[in-house]
Design a protein that fits this description.
Radius of gyration: 23 Å
Number of helices: 11
Helix content: 25-40%
Largest sheet: 9 strands, mixed
Strand content: 15-25%
CATH class of the largest domain: Alpha Beta
CATH superfamily of the largest domain: Zn peptidases
Order of helices and strands: HHEEEHEHHEHEEEHEEEHEEHEHEH
Structural class: alpha/beta
Shape: globular
């Protein structure tokens, strides 16, 4: 087994990351949407890197760039991430996984080594969902689960997915051909920045994801009675905002009591007819609830709703609660987790087990084959922000660990 040079790999990854980040729709911030000219330019650059690494390059009907290194058998290990971004993005979220995958596959291509399985590096284009009101379209197509109804969704300019796809030079009729056969796809592995602070806090560069968290959105609407802020006594008020504030505190308290098993966030709060001198009569909020355990998430939602109904009754408020999003947990394959953990140890790390609270293309790929993820430390846990940063040293260790994982994998 050859020992990868993590320092050299990290330096190359850093240069590639920064070069890709120069492709943006705006001069002063990183914006790269799905099926845009910037997506095309990024895909072309990624394809160039794949060819230089010795891979055969193609692009499917949704623009996913594929770099292929042939193996001895039919089975293929799929390695990938995405090259689209959020608005005003950081440069590491997504591209890191594509670039590390190219470096790892290129390691074997340069040696001319035929593995017992093939390796495909995939650069998806629609993980963030920042153009259309849908997400994971690219990876769902690869997994054979693309819903044609997505083609009728529209972007902010009023153009349909179908129209934009045609402008990009692709045909919706070819989307089914993007799917891998189930007996062909051995596994999907993704390298991604953690997007959280745990690895940094624990002093470790790399971690192993145990599951991609399931997610529930509970929309809560509280109905009280608007009134004059100076004339209605406190004990006679039906203050919907006070009830909403208690609901926010309730969600936080219940999540803390799970000791890390569940996280809950209120990021949206709407006050109807808000004015400084009016008691709020109607308030709506969205509670985002996530967990690596579906059982824990469902239990949390049930307890939360029961207590919201109780506080609404105590405050003489009307309440409605609607689940607007329910995404199941995506567990990572235990055998693949073990392989990643051993690979991390081989480069001097101590693998930390983590749940991914963010969504990833692995959620779609799990419909096709077993999935696994390796997390890479990011400074301050910051992501979806220009301050996002991962060091060349940590990227190099991730690439070296991925090479070791590939070298020791059996499918």
């Amino acid at each position: 087994m050859t020992v990868p040079d993590s320092v050299s790999l990290g330096e190359r990854a850093d240069l590639m990351i920064r070069t890709l980040a120069s492709i943006s729709a705006e001069p002063n911030r990183l914006v790269r949407g799905f099926l845009t000219p910037e997506h095309r330019a990024a895909a072309d650059l990624v394809g160039k890197w794949m060819r230089e690494a010795g891979l055969d390059v193609s692009a499917d009907a949704l623009g996913t760039v594929r770099g292929r290194w042939a193996g001895e058998g039919r089975k293929r290990l799929l390695i990938g991430s995405h090259i689209d971004t959020v608005i005003d993005a950081g440069m590491f979220d997504g591209p890191l996984g594509v670039i590390v995958g190219i470096l790892a596959a290129g390691h074997f291509a340069r040696q001319g080594r035929k593995l017992p399985f093939g390796v495909d590096v995939l650069a998806f284009g629609d993980e963030e969902g920042s153009r259309f009101p849908v997400t994971l379209s690219s990876s769902l197509a690869v997994a054979g689960h693309f819903d044609a109804a997505r083609l009728e969704t529209k972007d902010a300019a009023g153009m349909s997915f179908r129209e934009v796809l045609a402008q990009y030079g692709k045909s919706a009729a070819d989307i089914p051909a993007a799917a891998y056969a189930r007996d062909e796809a051995a596994a999907y592995v993704e390298v991604h920045i953690e997007q959280g602070p745990v690895l940094e806090h624990r002093g470790q560069p790399l971690g192993v994801v145990t599951a991609i968290a399931g997610q529930t959105y509970v929309n809560v609407e509280l109905l009280g009675e608007a009134g004059h802020a100076g004339t209605v006594p406190m004990l006679l008020r039906r203050d919907a905002l006070a009830g909403a504030a208690e609901t926010v505190s309730l969600a936080e308290r219940l999540a803390r009591e799970t000791k890390g098993e569940v996280v809950a966030t209120v990021g949206v709060l709407r006050i109807s007819n808000a004015a400084g001198n009016v008691i709020p009569g109607n308030v709506a909020l969205i509670v985002d609830i996530r967990s690596g355990s579906d059982a824990a998430r469902h239990k949390f939602v049930d307890v939360f709703k029961t207590e919201v109904r109780a506080l609404a009754e105590r405050r003489h408020l009307g309440v409605t609660m609607t689940d607007t999003r329910n995404v199941p947990t995506t567990p990572c394959d235990p055998v693949l987790q073990d392989g990643l953990g051993k690979a991390i140890k081989s480069v001097g790390g101590e693998p930390i087990s983590l749940v991914s609270g963010a969504g990833h293309d692995g959620m779609a790929m799990a419909k096709l084959c077993p999935v696994a993820m390796m997390f890479v430390r990011c400074r301050g846990g910051i992501s979806h922000n220009p301050a996002e940063y991962t060091s060349p040293a940590d990227m190099g260790l991730a690439a070296a660990a991925l090479i070791t994982f590939i070298e020791t994998a059996t499918f």
